[in-house]
Every structure is written in C-alpha cells, then in structure tokens.
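Exercise 7b. Backbone tokens:
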C-alpha cells in the first residue's frame, strides 16, 4: 500500500463513519458510562489537536511529539493529530515514570519539543525537564476520555481521596491542557500535506541487546505492515467491520502500534483500550463484557489467565474470542498447552521486531512449539551460514521495515548497505507437513561459550528445565569466568514458592538436565528466584540474571 497512516481515518460514509473505533475500558459495566470514540470523532478530535499543535504551540513539520500515555483514547487522537500536523510521534513507556532517567534518555535522544502526558506522570517529568529540549508539556487526565456523568464522578472521587492530579490553566507557561487545546481547535479548518516517505514514528527498542535505539518508521512502511497483518487476519477467518479487538499490549510497543492500532483501524474494528495490562482479571472482564473476537497478548497475559482459569474463573469469559495471538516474547510450551487445554483454542505465535514490524504468525496446522509461521506478504527471509541441520541467523527484508536508526548514521549506513536485516535470532525453515514456516532456535547474543569451547543455546536448556515438575519458569544465561570462559547459570522459579532450594534439590535439577542433555550443557549453577525479571515487553532481562549470586 502506498499512502500515509491518515488514510486509516478517512471518511467512509455516514453510518460507517459513526461506528465506534475505540472503547475506554475502566471496569464499569454500564455501557452508557463507557468512554467511546467513533471513527468520525477520532478524525475530528485529531484535527483540533493538529490545529492547536501548529497554531497555538507553533510546532513545525518534522519536530517530535513524545506521547507518554497508557492505552486510552487520547493516544490515537494525539497520534493522528501529530501526523496531520506533520510531526513525528515518539511513544514512551508510561512505566518509565518510576525511573525518570529512562524518560530522559529518550527525550534527549529524540530531541522532542513537546510531550503529551497523563497527569499522574507529571512529577517524573518535572524531575528531568531542565535537561531536555521540551517547550511544551501537554497534560491530560482520565476524565478527558469519559462522558460527562463519568467525568464528574472521576473528579469527585479524586478530590475526596486526595490523589494527585494536575489540571493546569496558565499557572506555568510550558504546561498546556490537552482538553483546552482540543477545545481551542474546535471548528477550525486545518490541512497540511503528509507524504508516504515521511517519518511517522521513532519507536525505541527495548534495550535488551544494548542501549535503546530510536527506530525510524515511515508512513508507507507502517501502512504496508498493517496491510500484511490484515491479509493474515482475513485468512484466519476474521472480517472487515465485524471484529472487536482488545488492546492489552501497550501502544509504545511495536505489537500494540502495528496490530492493535494501525491494523485494527484498517479492518474497521472496534478496539477496547486497556490502560493497565497487568490487571488480568479486568482483562477477563473486558473480554466477557465487550465480546472480544481477537486478542493479541504477551506471555505474561497467557500465563496469568491460565492460572485464573485453573483456579475457577468462568471460561465463558473467553468464548467469544476467535483468534489468540502471542507476541513480544516466547511463550513456554507448558503455559501454552495449559491455556489451550482450558480454553479449547490454539494460541498463534507471532514474530516481529521493532525494526521490522510484524514479520509472521502461525496459521492452522503450524503446531511446532518453535514455529512462528509463514512470512507475511512482501517479506523475504534467508538463513545466514546454515549448519548441517539448516540452522543459522535469520535474515529479513520487507516493505514494512524501518528506514534507519535515529541519530545513528553509522548503524543506518550499515543497514542500508545490507540487502537483509540481521535479526540476531537463530532459525531454520521447515514445511511442518503443510507449507514453509520459520522455526526459531534461540538468540545469537545469548549463546554461551563453555569452558571447552562449545556454543550452547540457552533455549535448549530452558526447555529441559521447564519439564521438571518443580519448575514453573526458567531462564539460562552465561556468566563470565576468568578461568573457564563462561559458566552456565540456570535461574528457576519453583512451582511452590516456599519450596526448598537446598544443595540436594540443585543436584536433582542438574541430574534431570544430565538425563536429557550433553554433559557440557548441564548448568554449572542453579539459582532459585521468586520471579524472573522482564521488561515491559515481556522479554527476560538476561543482564539482571548475570548479576545474581549463585547462593541465592
């Protein structure tokens, strides 16, 4: 597809235009109290915001607008308003409010001139603002998403409980009210040309493979990726204008942006916005009440939902869902099979990267645990230096990939010079009895070089550990050893959190590994932990595991 993301919200007829595009789920069950936004309302509000960004805040095309919001209607309004104004959107993880230094890195690297932020995150910004280039801080509140009655209830509760909120009116020159800007732009005509090759997003990598890098995504690349996702959804039986998506994956993540925002609008779906993806019981309620038909989540969602279902949560909650997709990180077989047994439907594993968008997803019949399905339309793949089994580094090229890295000329030049993008993931191709698919076989960065010189894939050991009846989660990492290269450290979460992790138990775990693996692959250390720390995308923070002590 050639065009810009603004095509996603173009008028499509009187009735079609008044269909609900987004529902803000705050846990209330009365439909007349739910915050709703139609396709027409989204377009009009975005235009108002675009007018104010240009005329009130004097932002110019090509400047960066950071957006630090959970999944709520203000996000798509600011997203498309920025595009109408010719700006580049920089999504920021709202959980970085806990560590303002993380926000500072992104704001400094992107050079963002303005930011849209939820009121309760404002204190974190005030800590770092003097070190940024921010000229404007646009503050919104949850009340800005809600209808009048609910809005009044919100303010009364907030005042009664004494919780922090900020509704600025000319108290400080750099603080702007989102609601006031939207009102100022009411009735104003606005049009600015946006081109397919313009940068639409600078979305930062998770940082699991080094310092986060700003990935430049153009309008046409994002639109192409949405078109490929749409084709997949239709092949899986979903239909245009009939589906209800649940957006539990945050919009700062490529899965959230690509699948649950751009693609959702392209197929004219209704999208239910979940502001806190960690509250799984509320997600179950939302699926049940809204009759969600498509769910794309991360491993943590499926693991916790399986626990709740096993503990007695009503399975009718999930009966409306036709398609389950896992992305962001690998879902271990034990959790996948548990969920599928309880729900009676398969989870489809997807694969993508910030630099590539969504690359592939399983279809019916692709049942291998490591399969991520066939490459999408206009995606080319290859294996670099395959071994005797055909395993090597996965290379990808597609029309939906990035243009380059923001402010990283050398890396961008290397990327442009190469025909394919090197993913850093090991893979091999297989027919699985039906058609060409990709099987992921580990990540190159995390290969462990043992004392005897062999390369060991941590994923292979993790699979064996997960089979042990006492282990509910496992992650394996190489730890530097001055004398012996790298030691293999296995971090495990016990099924019984109060279970013993004495030496005799560790020996039992090592024996279990030795029964299934070559001796040089057996972990040198076993570390029992309460949880394996992950980032907001659900990916294991392996560097944190290296810092643990073997006596833990």
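Sequence design result:
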């Amino acid at each position: 597809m050639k065009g810009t993301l603004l095509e996603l919200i173009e008028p499509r007829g009187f009735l079609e235009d008044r269909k609900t595009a987004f529902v803000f789920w705050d846990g209330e069950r009365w439909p007349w109290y739910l915050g709703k936004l139609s396709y027409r309302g989204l377009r009009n509000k975005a235009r108002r915001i675009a007018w104010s960004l240009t005329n009130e805040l004097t932002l110019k095309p090509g400047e960066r607008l950071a957006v630090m919001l959970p999944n709520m209607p203000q996000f798509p309004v600011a997203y498309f308003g920025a595009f109408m104004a010719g700006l580049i959107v920089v999504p920021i993880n709202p959980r970085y409010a806990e560590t303002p230094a993380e926000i500072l890195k992104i704001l400094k690297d992107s050079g963002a001139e303005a930011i849209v932020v939820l009121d309760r995150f404002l204190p974190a910004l005030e800590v770092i603002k003097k070190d940024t280039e921010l000229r404007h801080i646009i503050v919104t509140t949850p009340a800005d998403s809600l209808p009048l009655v609910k809005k009044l209830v919100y303010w009364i509760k907030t005042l009664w409980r004494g919780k922090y909120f900020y509704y600025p009116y000319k108290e400080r020159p750099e603080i702007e009210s989102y609601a006031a800007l939207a009102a100022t732009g009411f009735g104003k005509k606005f049009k600015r040309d946006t081109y397919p090759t313009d940068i639409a997003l600078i979305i930062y990598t998770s940082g699991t493979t080094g310092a986060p890098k700003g990935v430049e995504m153009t309008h046409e690349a994002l639109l192409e990726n949405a078109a490929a996702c749409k084709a997949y959804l239709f092949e899986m039986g979903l239909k245009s204008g009939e589906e209800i998506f649940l957006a539990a994956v945050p919009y700062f993540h490529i899965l959230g942006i690509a699948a649950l925002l751009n693609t959702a609008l392209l197929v004219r779906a209704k999208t239910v916005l979940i502001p806190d993806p960690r509250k799984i019981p509320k997600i179950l309620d939302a699926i049940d009440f809204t009759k969600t038909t498509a769910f794309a989540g991360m491993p943590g969602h499926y693991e916790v939902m399986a626990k709740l279902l096993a503990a007695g949560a009503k399975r009718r909650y999930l009966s409306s869902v036709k398609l389950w997709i896992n992305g962001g990180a690998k879902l271990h077989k034990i959790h996948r099979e548990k969920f599928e047994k309880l729900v009676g439907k398969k989870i489809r594993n997807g694969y993508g990267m910030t630099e590539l968008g969504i690359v592939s997803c399983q279809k019916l019949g692709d049942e291998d645990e490591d399969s991520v399905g066939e490459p999408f339309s206009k995606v080319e793949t290859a294996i670099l230096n395959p071994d005797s089994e055909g395993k090597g580094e996965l290379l990808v090229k597609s029309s939906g990939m990035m243009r380059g890295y923001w402010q990283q000329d050398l890396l961008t030049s290397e990327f442009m010079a190469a025909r394919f993008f090197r993913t850093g993931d090991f893979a091999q191709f297989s027919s699985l009895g039906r058609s060409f698919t990709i099987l992921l076989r580990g990540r190159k960065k995390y290969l462990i070089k043992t004392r005897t010189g062999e390369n060991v894939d941590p994923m292979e050991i993790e699979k064996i550990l997960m089979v042990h009846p006492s282990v509910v989660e496992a992650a394996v990492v190489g730890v530097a050893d001055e004398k012996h290269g790298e030691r293999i450290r296995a971090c495990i979460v016990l099924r019984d959190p109060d279970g013993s992790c004495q030496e005799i138990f560790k020996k039992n775990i090592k024996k279990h590994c030795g029964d299934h693996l070559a001796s040089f692959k057996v972990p040198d250390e076993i570390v029992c932990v309460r949880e394996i720390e992950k980032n907001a995308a659900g990916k294991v923070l392996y560097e944190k595991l290296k810092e643990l002590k073997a006596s833990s």
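Instructor comment: The longest strand covers residues 471-481. The chain is about 30% helix and 25% strand.
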